[in-house]
Q: What sequence folds into this?
């Protein structure tokens, strides 16, 4: 029995790694598409984008792990069945159902991990991801400044800078600003530009220049050695402080809220956490019946089952909101158990 346990562990590990890599790759592609979507919308800040990508991948583990357990168990027992190894084990006095026993160790570890992951880590990462999305969607006024181009992204203002250095120091700048009946022409040999996110202003610290003020009745010109000129920016440039939603609260904060939304969220996370145990039995029973060695086939079946799972979870949430009874959140668990019993027969 000890030899057979080691053999089952080994075969399950091989199938698990293969399934994990394929599923992980699929979710990586999905995260890349999200990054591309942000870039297309004008967000190209390397570090925040990399952090967004990392968070997207990490959050996906709450789905990747259960799905990997499902597909790897299907693939393992399908191979055993098609190779007639199940018959060999049976002749040795080991019924098919007992072969799952050594694999419960894996599922229990994954279940405990997902409990902590879903209730404490994922909410924080979801909040960071949403915060990053907000930051990436906000225009950075400093990034708009490009040397040797006329910048017209700021309201009623045109800016031309001949040369921009590090820390947004510059040489030879021209600014034209219109205010009702007044037009200001400003030139300076050098200076620096600073963005104040709190006041949402763009401050130009200028040296050695002059400005011309033209109104309906007068024209005035002033030379200066040092001058500060600022531009008030619209709200689209200002960072919005966001608060965590109920989906972004950890277990401790979630339990302090006594309403239907918090209860639904709690039970949904519980369902996601126990799926490795249920999917181990479901995958094993499906594999024994289908007897196919094609691993990609089982990843496809796993994807189809996951779609059913999410549809049933959505249905359960809708019924829960109508009936005020959270027991309906467990509809997908009930469906999976029924499917498992059906295939075991």
A:
């Amino acid at each position: 029995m000890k030899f057979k346990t080691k053999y089952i562990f080994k075969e399950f590990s091989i199938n698990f790694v293969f399934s994990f890599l394929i599923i992980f790759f699929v979710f990586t592609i999905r995260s890349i598409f999200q990054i591309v979507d942000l870039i297309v919308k004008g967000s190209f800040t390397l570090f925040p984008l990399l952090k967004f990508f990392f968070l997207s991948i990490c959050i996906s583990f709450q789905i990747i792990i259960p799905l990997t357990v499902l597909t790897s168990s299907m693939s393992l027992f399908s191979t055993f069945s098609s190779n007639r190894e199940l018959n060999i084990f049976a002749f040795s006095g080991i019924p098919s159902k007992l072969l799952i026993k050594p694999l419960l160790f894996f599922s229990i570890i994954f279940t405990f991990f997902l409990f902590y992951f879903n209730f404490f880590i994922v909410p924080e990462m979801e909040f960071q991801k949403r915060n990053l999305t907000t930051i990436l969607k906000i225009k950075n006024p400093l990034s708009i400044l490009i040397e040797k181009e006329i910048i017209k992204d700021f309201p009623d203002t045109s800016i031309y800078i001949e040369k921009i250095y590090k820390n947004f120091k510059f040489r030879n700048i021209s600014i034209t600003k219109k205010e009702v009946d007044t037009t200001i022409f400003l030139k300076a040999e050098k200076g620096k530009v600073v963005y104040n996110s709190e006041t949402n202003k763009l401050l130009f610290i200028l040296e050695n220049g002059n400005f011309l003020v033209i109104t309906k009745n007068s024209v005035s010109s002033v030379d200066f050695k040092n001058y500060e000129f600022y531009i008030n920016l619209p709200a689209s440039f200002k960072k919005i402080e966001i608060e965590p939603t109920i989906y972004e609260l950890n277990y401790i904060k979630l339990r302090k809220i006594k309403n239907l939304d918090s209860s639904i969220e709690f039970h949904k996370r519980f369902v996601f956490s126990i799926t490795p145990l249920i999917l181990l039995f479901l995958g094993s029973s499906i594999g024994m019946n289908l007897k196919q060695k094609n691993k990609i086939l089982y990843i496809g079946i796993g994807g189809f089952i996951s779609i059913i799972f999410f549809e049933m979870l959505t249905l359960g949430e809708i019924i829960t909101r109508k009936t005020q009874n959270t027991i309906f959140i467990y509809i997908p668990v009930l469906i999976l158990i029924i499917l498992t019993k059906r295939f075991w027969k």
